[in-house]
Amino acid sequence: MIFEIVRQVTAHKMNIEEQKITLKSAFKNDLKVDSLDIFEIILELEERFSVEIPTEDLEDIQTVRDLVEYLEKRKEKESH
Prior knowledge:
Non-ribosomal Peptide Synthetase Peptidyl Carrier Protein, Chain A
């Protein structure tokens, strides 16, 4: 579920087809996401998942899988 939402938001913000986005997709190299784009994607996801993603955490998020796993951990922490 989280992957589908990340993929949907990323595809919408980057104006690309959802099918082109996989867990292995690297934001910068594969999807051509720049720092402003990632900021907009993160803002949308923070709103959708009701979480806050600190800017310093973004350095560790290089791929779609990184972001999905990060959101899963955040949601898990918040549910406890």
